[in-house]
C-alpha cells in the first residue's frame, strides 16, 4: 500500500518512487530525517505526496520459515524489475523484464491519471530515486501529453542500450543485430534484400495486430530528428504496454511530446551509482528532444541529504515548475 500525505486542499501532486530494495515508507523516513524538525506535510502542506512501493518481491520467507522482511514494512526490498546488476543498470532487457516494465508503466500512468483529476495534469510531478526514476522516465517517454515535471535523484536508466537502439532504428539491440545477420546471410546466398524482408515481416505482424493505425510503422527512412526518435521509442513502448511484449516490427507514434521538464541530481562522490549513469541518462533525454537539466553536486554521495533535497527544490522554483502556490510553499522552506 502507498504511503500518503494528503491535504484537504491540494495545489499539486508529487508521486515518489523509491529505488530497488527500498520502499515508500523508507523513502519518506529518509526525507523527513533530513528535514528535521519539519515534516514533509509541513513543507508541502497543500501538496498531495504519495510514496509508492515497487510491485515485485522475493519469496517472503526463508527455508526455515523465517521472514526476510520487517513486520512493519513488508514492502522493504521490493523491486521494479528483476535484475542481477547491483544497481539495476541492465543495458538490455529480457522478455521477462519487458513484461515487468509494461506493468510498471501501465500502473504508473494510471496513478498519474488519477492524480490529474485532483490537481490537473500540469501539476502532477514524479520524483524517482535510482531505478524508480528509470520507471518514471519510461512512462513519460510513451505519454502523448506532458506532466508538470520529472525529477530524479541518482538516476538509473535501465535498458538504456535497448532504448537507444529503439530510438535510432525502431527495435531492440537483439532484433537489430538479428536483422543485420539475416540480411548479410541472404545477400551472401543471393536471396531477399532488406526491403523484401521488411514487407514479409510486416504482413505477418500486421495480421494479428490490434494496434491502432497511427502506431504502425511508417516509412520514415533514416530520420534522426528528435521527434522521429521519440516517435519510434513511444511506438514500441505503447505496444509494450498493450501487449506485455516488444513488437516484431517497428512501431511509430506521431503524437509524441517532449515538453515535460526534467531535473536530475547526482552526488559526485556517490560510490554506489557512478555519475556516468546520470550523464548517460541526461543524454538519453537530450537525444529525444527533452530539455533536461543535470546537476552533479560536489561533496555529496549516495545518501540522501538535506542539501540534495534543498537543491532539487531550488531547481523546481527557479525553473518555474508547477503553479505559484506550490512554488511559494517550497520557497518558504528553502
Automatic annotation (TrEMBL):
Database matches in InterPro entries: AB_hydrolase_fold, LYPA1-2/EST-like
Signal peptide start-end: none
Residue ranges crossing the lipid bilayer per the database entry: none
Name this polypeptide is given: Peptidase S9 prolyl oligopeptidase catalytic domain-containing protein
A GO CC annotation given for this chain: cytoplasm
Molecular function as annotated in GO: carboxylic ester hydrolase activity; palmitoyl-(protein) hydrolase activity
